[in-house]
From TrEMBL:
Residues 6-125 form the Gfo/Idh/MocA-like oxidoreductase N-terminal domain. Pfam families: GFO_IDH_MocA, GFO_IDH_MocA_C3. Coiled coil: none annotated. It comes from the Bacteria. This is Fructose reductase. One of its GO terms (molecular function) is nucleotide binding. Residues 133-253 form the GFO/IDH/MocA-like oxidoreductase domain. InterPro entries: Gfo/Idh/MocA-like_OxRdtase_N (IPR000683), Gfo/Idh/MocA_Oxidoreductases (IPR051450), GFO_IDH_MocA-like_dom (IPR055170), NAD(P)-bd_dom_sf (IPR036291).
């Protein structure tokens, strides 16, 4: 392909408006050519507000455009699989929102279709692109706190009214686990470098969500090496500062204010010498992700989170959901 990347947005979403449009335009030789929305009115407004030359309600208008090399899929979760399969068949590279799909079978079909078509499939797990998490991963890999014993993740916040909708009323595609906890899962996989073997979970519902959709969760996970991990996630906790804590045999690494989409987070190490802050040089998470994706499309490197990363995170998330529904410890199987 030429060095220029033409984009089609499949979904006129809030995340596309707030983060992805800017991140695409921050890449050299990249432009957004069209946006799809099921609503003509919403699509027209999105295109006008974001300076996009065309909008459509027909996905084929994007997939048959030879100038479109890549698509960003941010429609409702139940459409990710069918739209990815259609895009792969049309030879388009794909950046898909999480969860990559709603079932393991669908995720595997998506990965296979993209592999067979020779196109890139990436999943928008943004937290692994946070500079603080990347610094933390380097320190863990270097053994800065000795043998890892336990981890705590705090990702509780209050979901704004504009983002509620399907997240709090769709028993299949909505809920905290596939919307937020799955980000924690991917971040833990990135930081620890392995997958959990077993999970247990309890959920809350009714504070914001309804019809049994979870809006709060506590998870316990066991990773290889007998490392225990706790996740607290919520849609209903205002004023909470998200963070992570890693406990090792020789010290503790603490990340504060590091579980959002912002280029933020402070990192501290606590050991026998006391507590000190570790310098972090921040960058825009989405600029970083889109740069990695663009390089992969041009044949250099891998996306920040691959389709396989998305599949693994989904498998763990579904195991957590099963545990919450059954009240049992669930063994994790990564396809």
């Amino acid at each position: 392909m030429s060095s220029s990347i033409g984009w089609g947005l499949i979904g006129a979403s809030n995340v596309a408006r707030q983060w992805i449009v800017d991140a695409i335009r921050a890449q050299p030789d990249s432009e957004i050519l069209n946006v799809l929305s099921s609503s003509e009115e919403r699509g027209a407004r999105f295109a006008t507000e974001n300076g996009i030359p065309a909008h459509t309600t027909d996905i084929d208008a994007i997939l048959t455009d030879a100038n479109v090399n890549a698509v960003y899929i941010s429609t409702a979760n139940q459409f990710h699989c069918s739209q990815t399969l259609a895009a792969a068949s049309a030879g388009k590279n794909i950046l898909c929102e999480k969860p990559v799909a709603l079932s393991i079978d669908d995720a595997r079909k998506m990965i296979a279709a993209c592999r067979d078509a020779g196109v890139v499939l990436a999943v928008n797990h943004h937290l692994r692109c946070n500079a603080m998490h990347q610094k933390l991963q380097q320190l863990l890999e270097a053994g800065a706190i000795g043998q890892l014993n336990a981890v705590r993740v705090f990702h509780a916040n209050f979901l704004p009214q504009a983002l509620q909708g399907w997240r709090v009323n769709d028993p299949n595609g909505g809920g905290l686990i596939l919307d937020s906890t799955i980000h924690d899962i991917d971040t833990l996989r990135f930081l620890i470098g392995s997958n959990p073997t077993h999970v247990m979970a309890m959920t809350q519902s009714g504070r914001l969500a309804h019809d049994g959709v979870e809006d709060g969760i506590m998870v316990v996970m066991r990773f290889p090496g007998d490392v225990l991990v706790q996740i607290h996630g919520s849609y209903t906790v205002p004023f909470s500062e998200g963070g992570v804590e890693f406990y090792g045999s020789n010290g503790v690494l603490i990340g504060r204010d590091c579980m959002s989409q912002r280029a933020a987070g402070r990192l501290f190490m606590r050991n026998a010498d006391g507590e000190k802050e570790i310098p972090v040089h921040h960058h825009n998470l989405y600029h970083y992700a889109l740069a990695a994706f663009s390089n992969a499309v041009r044949g250099t490197g891998q996306p920040a989170a691959t389709g396989e990363d998305g599949l693994a995170a989904l498998a763990i998330a579904l195991a957590i959901r099963e545990s919450a529904l059954t009240g049992r410890q669930v063994e994790v199987e990564i396809p």
